[in-house]
Amino acid sequence: MSKRVLLLGESWVSSATHYKGFDQFGSVTFHLGAEPLVKALENTEFELTYMPAHEVVEKLPFDMEGLKAYDAIILSDIGANSLLLPPAVWMHSKPMPNRLKLLRQWTAEGGGLMMIGGYFSFQGIDGKARWRNTPVEDALPVTCLPYDDRLEIPEGFSAKITAPQDHPILNGITGQWPLLLGANEVLLKEGAEVLATLPDDEGGHPLLVSGTYGEGRSLVWTSDIGPHWVPGEFIQWPGYDQLWKNCLSWLTRLEDA
Questions:
Q1: Confidence band (pLDDT; 50, 70, 90) for 256?
Q2: Which of 18, 178, 182, 200 is deepest in the core (most CB within 10 A)?
Q3: pTM score, whole prediction
């Protein structure tokens, strides 16, 4: 039985100006950051729909019926403004449904919500992701900080596993995990289950945390899907694919199907 998963975000546009003596010209490039996860879920029980950040603004459903087409929704490196300010609101001052409240309700009614870290996840770079004190934060097992929450660790760290190896989300993942280069700092909520953390000498901050909200489940991974916080060695590690399959199996209650 397949489960439908919606991945939101993980794309960006870069603009550069090039100077050659007296002359200059500009260029714009488009980047997708979700390829490793998309590849990991190929030919699995999970039917993945990938909605890049610029599409989320208008295409993420504005009603419960649209959201309930999915068993799990992943927010990855996309700020709250992209959901709060569709063109109808931002450009035409037209009232529209609040999709942060809809995601909270969707989770409470049985959905599986996950947030993955990045520069526009949790509170993000310069605090601009703005997920703190939002309805989405209500549904997560962690609380966001009120300021820039990045933990940049250029020398790398290896995850400290704090849950039993036979936990559904860790099942089949053995040995020491490859290095990661960063994460978002968050605070645990009461009742959250911590599965992995940063090492003690890096503050022991949460890395992988699960929880429940109403009838639904929620999960956070405070590092990234891929570069730069997730090096190629981590992506090529067999545990990478297994981790995401386990996370989505747990979120969507695949084991109960």
A1: confident
A2: 182
A3: 0.96
Q: Please state the separation of Cα 130 from the chain's center in Å.
A: 14
Asked if the model's pLDDT at residue 145 lies above 70, the reply is yes
Q: Which residues of 74-89 are buried (b: 16+ CB within 10 A; e: fewer)?
A: bbbbbbbebbbebeee
Instruction: State the chain's maximal CA–CA distance in angstroms.
Output: 66
DSSP 44-84: SSEEEEEE-HHHHHHHS-SSHHHHTT-SEEEEES--THHHH
CB burial of residue 151 (10 Å; 0-12, 13-18, 19+): buried
Distance CA 231, CA 236 (A): 9
pLDDT score of 255: 78
Give the tens place of pLDDT for each residue, 22-80. Answer: 999 999 999 999 999 999 999 999 999 999 999 999 999 999 999 999 999 999 999 99
Q: Residue 253: is it exposed, middle or buried by C-beta count within 10 angstroms (0-12/13-18/19+)? A: middle
Q: Tokens at residue 139, please?
A: 């549904």
Mind giving me the DSSP string for 113-127? Answer: EEEE-STTSTT-GGG
Whose tokens are 């989405």? That residue is: 136
Share of the chain above pLDDT 70, in %: 100
